[in-house]
Automatic annotation (TrEMBL):
Domain of life, source organism: Bacteria
Family affiliation: Belongs to the bacterial solute-binding protein 7 family.
Protein name: C4-dicarboxylate-binding protein DctP
The keyword Signal is annotated on this UniProt entry: yes
Gene Ontology CC: outer membrane-bounded periplasmic space
Keyword line: Signal, Transport
Keyword Transferase: no
Signal sequence, renumbered to the chain: 1-22
NCBIfam families: dctP (TIGR00787), TRAP_S1 (NF037995)
Source organism (scientific name): Ectopseudomonas guguanensis
């Protein structure tokens, strides 16, 4: 019976492969908006490399970084149309498809990236991966970038210092409200336009993790960066549900195993990568780092915190409550 089972498994395996190979290897285009050297950029390349090693001839991966194939304005629609098969948009960019993920944008909700990690691993976080399946988007994993810092043309030490400035934000109503709380205006701009918008003075400030600031050279056009760690910028690795579940079983299982390994590696390395970029920014001497005392940070927290209440019914109080339990 063991031999029969093995033969069956073999036949089954080759059947899957044959389906995939009938029209050549399955092509997975992975598009994203950041540089290769960032946590997400590295994750995409690691995924490609492992697939090439373990699914050679069955699956082919093409990675398009830096908004070179699709950008923020159109990548999710391209995914739903199966013009691209993998993306890892920031959690702030799914507003059109689910409001629940806006929990990740709430300022000062998570104490640090470890708390974010715990939320993503627990049942509510896992559930959110499936929150867009009715719209043909399946969440495969969370990838960390890191905590956001505030950069500006002015030194921002108190919330009042931001008054009257215009900040570039990702397209999220929560982020718009967050800056409204400190008397600042906002412009929703695609990531590919951030450097130019800051350089030209179209906007005077932005919020980003260190890795995005460094790789986009934002510190060269933002003379001050306040280390606020006020919110998180993480990603959801997503695919087109119909495409994903249409992949022959054996191959999909291997792809999911690869994704688990890559996600583990990305999430393990992201914090160190951000700290290294933080140091590179300091060493460049182009931007002044402003560190906040506990009391100063508390003032930012108090100023921004009313946003939670504002979005409680939109996001769901169950989701917010679950997220609040992860701090230590
Ligand atoms: C941003 O638009 O600032 C980020 O979402 C870019 C990214 O993918 O890290």
């Amino acid at each position: 019976p063991v031999r029969a089972l093995a033969a069956f498994a073999l036949a089954f395996a080759s059947l899957g492969a044959a389906t995939a190979l009938a029209d050549g290897p399955i092509l997975i285009k992975f598009s994203h908006v950041v540089a290769d050297g960032t946590p997400k950029g590295q994750g995409a390349l690691m995924f490609k490399q492992k697939v090439e090693e373990r699914l050679a001839g069955k699956v082919k991966v093409e990675v398009y970084p830096n908004s070179s194939l699709y950008g923020d304005a159109n990548e999710l629609e391209a995914l739903r149309n199966n013009e691209v098969q993998l993306l890892a948009p920031s959690l702030a960019k799914f507003e059109q498809y689910t409001k629940q993920l806006q929990v990740f944008d709430l300022p000062f909700l998570f104490d640090d990236i470890e708390a974010v990690n715990r939320f993503q691993k627990r049942s509510k976080g896992r559930q959110l991966l499936r929150s867009m399946e009715d719209q043909n988007i399946v969440g495969l994993a969370y990838w960390h970038n890191g905590m956001k810092q505030l950069s500006a043309t002015r030194a921002l030490r108190t919330p009042g210092d931001a008054n009257g400035l215009s900040f570039r934000i990702q397209s999220s109503a929560v982020l718009e409200a967050q800056f409204g709380q400190i008397g600042a205006s906002t412009q929703k701009l695609p990531f590919a336009e951030v450097f130019k918008a800051l350089q030209s003075g179209q906007v005077q400030g932005a919020e980003n993790p260190w890795s995005n600031i460094y790789s986009q050279k934002l510190h060269e056009v933002q003379p001050f960066i306040s280390e606020t760690n006020h919110g998180v910028l993480d990603y959801m690795l997503v695919s087109n549900s119909r495409f994903w579940y249409g992949i022959p079983h054996q191959i999909r299982v291997e792809l999911e195993a690869i994704i688990d390994e890559v996600s583990y590696a990305v999430n393990k390395q992201a914090e160190a990568a951000n700290q290294a970029d933080r140091q590179r920014i300091i060493d460049s001497g182009r931007s002044q780092l402003i560190t906040l005392s506990n009391e100063e940070r508390e003032a930012w927290r108090n100023a921004m915190r009313p946003v939670w209440q504002q979005f409680e019914s939109v996001i769901g109080s169950d989701v917010i409550k679950a997220a609040q339990t992860v701090n230590r």
